[in-house]
Amino acid sequence: MQFILTGAALLSIFAAVKAGRSWSKTVSVILGLLWLWMGAVYHLMFFSLINPAATVFGIMFILQAAIFFYAGALRDDLTFRFRPGVLGFAGILLLIYALVAYPLLGFVYGHVYPYSPTFGLPCPTVIFTFALLLWSDKKVPLYVLPIPLIWSLIGFSAAILLGICEDIGLLIAGVLAVSLLLWSRRKEQPASR
């Protein structure tokens, strides 16, 4: 599955760069499928065996998958297009962190495959999600942000409790991305008289 999940990530990056309505829907569907995978397979099928809270996490992730399908595939509330600027380049940094730096840091800290969190598991994939949201062509609807932000706080605890230092980037990604997205919403609002 690693090759399929990473391939889906690369396809979504290509689609966001390509831009256009159908490509944006592709990005939203891929994000929805990634979140569905993490909720159903990782949390409900596996993680719930060692942590009862994983059932709640699984439901949250499946709900987020539905949000991506709704916002981007059924509606046009999410459209993606890379644009140079603060948000675009912050998105590139988070993409590099999620797909390259995260596994490299894991290797450096001794978290080697198959015992390392790989793409398709919550922490690197949530960082990847924030990266693509920074490439949104419109204001990201506020209803898209709470679950990824909550997970960035929950997942950060792994950095502290389990010694997964690469998850420190999850908290940074969540705070940075949500702050930049809220800043861009304010910037785009017309000044009141």
How does this structure look, described?
With 193 residues, the chain is mainly alpha-helical. It has one domain (2-187). 71% of the residues lie in helices and 0% in strands. The protein contains 7 helices and no strands. The protein has helices at residues 2-18, 21-46, 54-74, 86-108, 122-134, 146-161, 168-188. α2 runs antiparallel to α3. The longest helix has 26 residues, at 21-46. It is globular and about 45 Å long. The chain starts with a helix and ends in a 5-residue tail after the last helix. The mean pLDDT is 89.
Please specify the SSE layout and strand pairing:
Layout: H1 2-18, H2 21-46, H3 54-74, H4 86-108, H5 122-134, H6 146-161, H7 168-188
What overall form do the CA principal axes indicate? globular
The number of helices is 7
Overall number of strands:
0
- Report how far the terminal alpha carbons are from each other: 54 Å
Number of domains: 1
Instruction: Specify the biggest β-sheet.
Output: none
Secondary-structure element order, as H and E? Answer: HHHHHHH
Query: What average pLDDT do the residues reach?
Result: 89
Question: Tags for this entry?
Answer:
single chain; 7 helices
How would you sum up this structure in a few lines?
With 193 residues, the protein is mainly α. It has helices spanning 2-18, 21-46, 54-74, 86-108, 122-134, 146-161, 168-188.
